[in-house]
Amino acid sequence: MLRANKKYYFIIILLPLFLYLFLSIFSSVATFKVSSEKSSLSPISIGLEFQEIEITSNKKTISSWWIPNDSDKTLLVLHGLRSQKSDELILNFIKEFHTLGFSIIAIDFRNHGKSSKGDFTFGLDEINDVYITLDYYYQSKGIRRVGIWGFSYGATTAIFSGQEYDQDKMTPEIVGIFSDTPYFSLTDMISAQISRRTPLNLFMANLLKPGILLFTNLFYGFDFNAIEQNYVENSDINIPTKIIGCTGDKTVPLEQSEKAHKSLGKNSNLVEFENCRVHGEAFDSDPLRYLQEFEKHFMDLF
């Protein structure tokens, strides 16, 4: 009888531990599942002629679009996480920017759209996707100066690309960055992200946070503190950068954009939009103002 009771208590103790480990592992894997479903949309869908170009480097492929315009202004467009260049949201931005006179380069990041698989690091190593693309278009299309627009994951990658870009040694020149809703601290955001990506509520996600951080490091070799550390270690940016933040955004709260802005120094400017019901709604909340801020930022940079 005593032995049976001990076994019963042993199960009671181990069951919550097993459940915690299982849910932590499940959440870690869900966080790093970043592939996007391929879309049939293209610039043709918005009335624009384009050239589809695959850029090959180190046996990896970056899928890109070249959408020319009658000006010397070129913009690199960087999509968000679990998105792709052919998403309707990104195509709408491409159309707006092309209407403003920009030639457009749009890419699928690694693990997204039509591009190859690769290390997923929330923007840290993805800067090499940016550099490879820019070098290709410098060599093949003669692009000498380029601006970068990015959203969320793409916005953060744009900032990191600008921080580490050596204008004296690398081509083409990055004249400016327009960063729509970048994140600053993944550790501050992870609970909300897990709650969105899994059936777990926010309370459970907070309880699992230490386990998620541990197993993410063990399985993927990724430290969630690395994003914030990268901002701190590469503080300031030499390229004129405009950051967009929006109240009401629960995926990347306004304070994330504020912290990113403060870390970048005098060349960074923060513009706040209001009433974002969902992530990425700054443009929809006030399209005219958004495009005015965009034009104003790049007006004298080309």
Sum up the structure in keywords.
302 residues; alpha/beta; Rossmann fold; 8 strands
Structure description:
It is a single chain. The chain is α/β, with parallel strands linked by helices and 302 residues long. The chain has one domain: Rossmann fold. It is 44% helix and 17% strand. The chain has ten helices and eight strands. The chain has helices at residues 2-31, 88-99, 127-141, 153-163, 186-197, 202-220, 226-233, 254-264, 282-285, 287-298, and strands at 51-57, 60-67, 74-78, 103-107, 145-151, 173-180, 241-246, 268-273. The chain has an eight-stranded mixed beta sheet, sandwiched between helices.
What about the largest sheet?
Answer: 8 strands, mixed
Within CATH, the superfamily carries the name Alpha/Beta hydrolase fold, catalytic domain
The CATH architecture can be given as 3-Layer(aba) Sandwich
Strand content: 15-25%
CATH hierarchy class name: Alpha Beta
Give the tally of structural domains: 1
Distance between the termini: 83 Å
Strand order of the largest sheet: 1-2-4-3-5-6-7-8
SSE order, one letter for each helix or strand: HEEEHEHEHEHHHEHEHH
Report Rg: 21 Å
What is the SS-derived class? Answer: alpha/beta
* Bulk shape: globular
Individual helix count: 10
Average predicted local confidence, pLDDT: 91
The low-confidence parts are: none
Helix content: 40-55%
Q: What kind of oligomer do you see?
A: single chain
CATH topology descriptor = Rossmann fold
Number of strands: 8
